Amino acid sequence: MILPGLIAVLWLGVVNQLRVEWAINPQYSYGLGVPFLAAYLLAKRWGTRPPPAAPIAGVTFWLLLGGAAFVLLPVRLVQEANPDWRLVSWAHALTVGALSLFVTWLLGGWPWVRHFIFPIAFLAVAVPWPSNAETAVVQTMMNQVTGLTVETMNWLGVLARQRGNLIELPTGVVGVNEACSGVRSFQSTLMIALFLGELYRLTLARRAVLLGAGVVLAFMLNVARALFLTWQCAKHGMAAAGSWHDPAGYAIFGVSFAGLLGLVFLLRRTNGAEPEDTPPKVASPRTAPRACVAALAAWIVTVEAGTEFWYRQHERAAVRQPGWTMNWPQDPARFRFTALPEEVRTTLRYSVGESAVWRASDTTDWQLFFFRWEPGRAAAQLARNHSPDICLQASGLRMQQDLGVTEVSVGALKVPFHAFVFESRNGQPLHVFYCVWEDRVQQATAGPEDYTPASRLRAVREGRRHLGQQVLEVALRGHPSATEARAALQAGLGRLIRPEGGGL
Questions:
Q1: Which one, of 163, 169, 185, lies nearest residue 227 by Cα?
Q2: What's the rounded Cα separation, in Å, for the pair 18 and 189?
Q3: What is residue 409's predicted lDDT score, i.e. its pLDDT?
Q4: Measured between alpha carbons, how far is 264 from 258 in angstroms, rounded to an integer?
Q5: What is the CA radius of gyration of the chain?
Q6: What is the average pLDDT value for the chain, to the nearest integer?
């Protein structure tokens, strides 16, 4: 059983890479339980495994197996520098899944592949969706939930207005903490539907019905949840949202599970279950070639050791960047700190976090957010996954332009900012500048990080990973053009940023 053990080690590697996303992104927190559910389904299938067929391991099979194993190396190299790149997470999971199926075929032939394919593929439900697909599906659903809630509240006689995924009431704004997370129960409901369909061995057609019912149920329950929270806020003030937010979420999960379980029993009553497999008298796996086992074990060690060696060698050449800290103005008439909501602290898990508003001497308004994370894999994901193009659009602002990365000079520092133009609620342009600053860089860095595929691959080539980071986000109101806004940023940063080791 050494070969299945090696596959288990590879899956543990996938889980280890995904656990950070599961921990920091409430939308995927259900992923923490998926490996255990997959193991349970695998154990149930193992008890009813068919007799193994004799596989024909020809040249094509060994080439495919070797190719899938080889892909692990570039995937791990890219993933180490870009733990938040979801396409790479999918590549990792699909590669290990392919290796799992090849090993299954080697041990039991096609009967075993057909028998075990669902538990192996089930882990894919915990891999975060690519950002474009997630935005298209989840944020669209959230927008529809918000729209229906607003219509219902107005029908009930409560004045409400939709702003993106937020609901404006006379007592305040509902849904701020949902703006970056979408419909939290949507993916978890799909996971439950898939799990119950396999657990009770429904036919393929009835599994499709159960999955469709899960989508409808998730949408309806989220409408009910949003309506309940909005009603509480309208009648009892905005503090009611914090009191009822978590209980309402747990209630939705419980009701969705109970509803899907009831539908499963209804579907089974109509002879919608596959016949249970009869445990065979002898169904031991075939013995894999020792050379295959040894080669796979050696390659796994080589991949992990080679990845670590690559980055450690480059990190020896890394130099600490000239650091900077915030030099907040001391004029109480023009500057004040603003409180960060508890939900922001819980979500972003920063080491240092500050928020402020400032009216510059030219009477333009500045809003500033400064966050710092100490070195670690979560730092990169948190800094990159909550950028303005994601969060501000979810909060109801329409992005007009993505101007790319521009460097702003602050003394000897060259500070890269990703510039955006949004349409603010009064119709005036809102200029947003977003900077992610890493503590250490390689001297050969070719340019500022803008998180395009090319820049992500450049980070791999330069061996950059897990560095401490800080983020400065500046929103400017009152400038008609991007050129004027950038000039104001250039002038204002001289007062707001203090280079480490002295002034300018």
A1: 169
A2: 19
A3: 85
A4: 10
A5: 26
A6: 83
Using the Cα atoms of residue 83, residue 249, residue 209 and residue 142 in order, give the sign of their dihedral.
Answer: negative
Is the domain of 406 the same as that of 420? yes
Element (H, E) at 311: helix 290-315
**Same domain? 329 vs 470:** yes
> Looking at the predicted structure, is the pLDDT value of residue 29 above 60?
yes
94 and 139, same structural domain?
no
Distances in whole angstroms, Cα of residue 355 to Cα of each of 336, 367, 475: 9, 8, 12
In a domain, 73, yes or no: yes
Query: Do 119 and 67 belong to one domain?
Result: yes
Cα–Cα distances (Å) from 105 to 108, 112, 119, 350, 358, in that order, read: 5, 6, 15, 46, 65
Q: Which domain holds residue 308?
A: 2-128+289-315
Q: What is the DSSP string of 233-272?
A: HHHH-THHHHHHHHHHHHHHHHHHHHHHHHHHHHHHHTT-
Q: Where do runs of H (alpha helix) occur along 47-183? A: 59-81, 86-122, 131-134, 140-155
Residue 449 pLDDT > 70: no
Asked if 113 and 235 sit in the same domain, the reply is no
> Does residue 380 lie in a domain region?
yes
- Which region, left, alpha or beta, applies to residue 454 given φ > 0 means left and ψ of -120 to 50 means alpha? alpha
pLDDT tens digits along 148-204:
888 998 998 888 888 777 788 887 777 644 444 445 677 888 899 999 999 999 999
Q: What is the pLDDT of residues 379-396, one digit of tens each?
A: 556 666 667 877 776 666
Quick: pLDDT tens for 57-71.
678 888 999 999 999
pTM confidence score:
0.77
Total domains in the chain come to 3
